[in-house]
C-alpha cells in the first residue's frame, strides 16, 4: 500500500510544487527554509544523488487506482558512517492525505529501509513544538523525545522550541519483534 523509493529528476516538479505551498512549507520547516530552495537547486541536488551520498531524497508513494501515486517526500542527511546515524526529514506534500494514517505508515517503511539498507544505529529528526501532528506521528513510529532546544526553530510566526527526537536500532528491533 505504501512504498518509499529514491527520488529522480522526474519528481522535481512535484517536490517543488509542495515546497511552494505555504501551509506545507510552514509545517515542514517553519516556512522560509523549505520554500527558499529554487527549482534548479532541487534539480541539481537530485541529479547529484549517488548511492554513497551523505544525503539522499526519496519519494513516498501509495497504491491508488492500480498505480503508484507520489504523495510526499522524505530524506536523510548527515550520514555518519562511524556512529551509523542520520538525520531525517519527512513530509506528506499532498495536503488531502494528511491525518489519514499515511504518514505513519510511510515513516515506518522509511525507518525499516534505513535500518536495513544502511545498517544504522540511530535515526534523528526534529520539528517545532507546535507541530503536534508530526510529533504524534513520530511517537507512533517509535521515536522518543530526547530534548528541547529553546526557541531554536525559526518560523514565520516567530521562534519556536525545537523538539529533537530519536529512534535507536535496539528499540526498532524490539518494536518489530512485538508486532
Ligand atoms: C506530519 C505528517 C508527516 C504526519 O503524517 P499524517 O499522515 O498526516 O499523520 P497520521 O495520520 O499518520 O498521524 C497523525 C496523528 O496525529 C494526530 N494529530 C493530528 N493533529 C493533531 C494535533 N493538532 N494534536 C495532536 N495530535 C494530532 C492524529 O490524530 C494522528 O494520531 P492518532 O492516529 O493517534 O489519532 C504530515 O501531516 C505532514 O507531512 N504534514 C506537513 C509537513 C510536516 O509537518 N512535516 C513534518 C516536519 S518535521
TrEMBL record:
Q: Which Pfam families match?
A: Acetyltransf_3 (PF13302)
At the top level of its lineage, which domain of life is listed? Bacteria
- SUPFAM superfamilies in the cross-refs: Acyl-CoA N-acyltransferases (Nat)
Matching InterPro entries, A to Z?
Answer: Acyl_CoA_acyltransferase (IPR016181), GNAT_dom (IPR000182)
The chain positions of domain N-acetyltransferase read 2-170
- PANTHER family linked: GNAT-FAMILY ACETYLTRANSFERASE (PTHR43415:SF3), SPERMIDINE N(1)-ACETYLTRANSFERASE (PTHR43415)
Name of this chain's protein = GNAT family N-acetyltransferase
